[in-house]
Amino acid sequence: MNWFDAGDAQLHWREDGDPDGAPVVFSNSLGTDLRLWDFVLERLPKKGLRYIRYDTRGHGLSSSPDGPYGMGALITDTERLMDHLELKDAVFVGLSMGGMIAQGLAVKRLDLIRGVVLSNTGAKIGNADMWNERIDAVTAGGIEAVADATMERWFSKAFHETAELQMWRNMLTRQSAEGYNACMSAIAGTDMITVTSGLRLPAMGIAGSEDGSTPPDMVRELMGLIPGAGYELIRKAGHLPCVEQPDLYAQHLMRFLDSIGHGTDG
Ligand SMILES: O=C(O)CCC(=O)CC(=O)O
């Protein structure tokens, strides 16, 4: 178990794979912790690549400083963790909120980032009314109050028939309500359209055909901002295709890494 003091937040992080390998950093979505990536990591090679993941502040085992947060704080946490671990030229895989962190970090510290996978995310997600409504609901009734609706957005119809759904619902409802709300404020205040349009780096988007949070059109539009970016649509998956379709997710990720020689170019 690893714990890093990022200043006003303490971050829980984990490392897998080859300690001497090329770094791949994973960043989670709202309401999840670093276990989000378990199924994908099981399918990735043990040699040549070093996998780093962490719990965003307000989530998992990381601390939950008083909110609201700005996206800048979430980006700075990640920057500090990567500096602490002396990571350079990493491929950064960010899902939803994690994808916003990826965009901001690439704009701020391109030296840290060799390429980005922007999964189930956008340059801007939702609008102020939508986020304020959800923050109010959680303030009044806790995360439980929004959990069923969230499962509808996160997972495909078929996944709702599985017993596993309850596990992910538990992950959501066991997050800190204060941390969850504080991160919603960060997303609500984020619009990356202008800055992401200036990014020039290898990039791939991943969307889920049944994503009720960040639908395929939103991801396609985002990838249209970055010249040369790839785009993959994963069918039979909602907002978390790394959970529902980990084989395909790992295959797309490996294809992207291979296409830029990450982990194979010495
Ligand atoms: O998943 C995220 O990081 C933000 C997008 C969202 O609202 C997810 C959800 O529907 O709960």
From TrEMBL:
It is an enzyme of class 3 (hydrolase). Residues 24-251 form the AB hydrolase-1 domain. PANTHER family: AB HYDROLASE SUPERFAMILY PROTEIN YCLE, MONOACYLGLYCEROL LIPASE. GO terms for biological process: beta-ketoadipate pathway. One of its GO terms (cellular component) is membrane. Its EC number is 3.1.1.24. This is 3-oxoadipate enol-lactonase 2. Pfam families: Abhydrolase_6. GO terms for molecular function: 3-oxoadipate enol-lactonase activity. The gene is catD_1. The keyword Hydrolase applies. Keywords: Hydrolase.
